[in-house]
Write a structure and sequence with these properties.
CATH architecture of the largest domain: 3-Layer(aba) Sandwich
Structural class: alpha/beta
Number of domains: 2
Order of helices and strands: HHEEHHEHHEHEEHE
Strand order of the largest sheet: 1-2-7-6-3
Largest sheet: 5 strands, mixed
CATH topology of the largest domain: Rossmann fold
Shape: globular
Strand content: 15-25%
Helix content: 25-40%
């Protein structure tokens, strides 16, 4: 089939079966060709790239990398994965997190560990977004995924608290359930805001023998 005939056939198919896929960045129904984003959101996202950056204050995390600054299409992707359960977003989001982590090289790690959700919250949402992202990152790096952390308390959502409340909300909220002694751990989460969650997880890991903790998140809410 010639190029002209192919274009004509494609136009006819689009007329009969119009694209109605929803962009996960802005909600547009105009459709997208790849990675769940319309072209406007794809370009906007590219302008919000972070990569390797300063780790959260506290001295517990030895290095950090983030895909994008939160907001715009990056925020849309996170919300659709986290609250609407669009689990297929984890794979393309994970690819960008791997790309961000590569900026920390030659950082060496032994395993990938997700920030855990409490079982009640997982049941309510129907998806464990951090675990999905961690699996995508582990697969991309060719490393084992270890669910080494558990959340012992169903804490209030960090996003709804001020900075001071975030610090105390997580006191004693995490425990280690797997062997991390001597391991270099890459901690995975969707968004880093103040770093309180990441630091609380790192504290539990280090107290149970992890040799170092690095962090990768899809979004950074603000600069440290």
């Amino acid at each position: 089939m010639s190029g002209g005939l192919k274009r004509g056939a494609r136009a006819l198919l689009e007329l009969i079966y119009p694209i109605r896929a929803e962009c996960m960045g802005c909600g547009s129904k105009a459709g997208f060709e790849r990675d769940w984003l319309c072209e406007d959101c794809r370009q906007a996202l590219a302008n919000r790239w972070v990569g390797a950056a300063t780790p959260p204050e506290g001295g517990l995390i030895d290095g950090a990398a983030y895909g994008y600054f939160y907001g715009g299409p990056a925020g849309g992707l996170v919300r659709n994965l986290k609250y609407r359960g669009v689990s297929r977003l984890a794979e393309p989001m994970g690819r960008q997190m791997v790309r961000a982590f590569e900026g920390l090289q030659p950082a060496q790690i032994d395993c990938v560990v997700p920030v855990p959700m409490h079982i009640r919250r997982t049941r309510r949402r129907g998806v464990n977004h951090a675990l999905l992202l961690a699996k995508a990152v582990a697969d991309g790096l060719g490393l084992p995924l270890e669910e080494a952390l558990v959340r012992t308390r169903n804490t209030r959502q960090q996003a709804r608290l001020n900075d001071a409340e975030r610090l105390h909300n997580l006191d004693g909220a995490f425990a280690v359930a797997g062997g991390v002694a001597g391991k270099r751990v890459l901690l995975v989460d969707d968004v880093c805001t103040t770093g309180a969650t990441a630091n609380a997880c790192a504290k539990a890991l280090l107290e149970n023998g992890a040799s170092t903790v690095l962090l990768v998140c899809f979004c950074l809410a603000h600069k440290f």
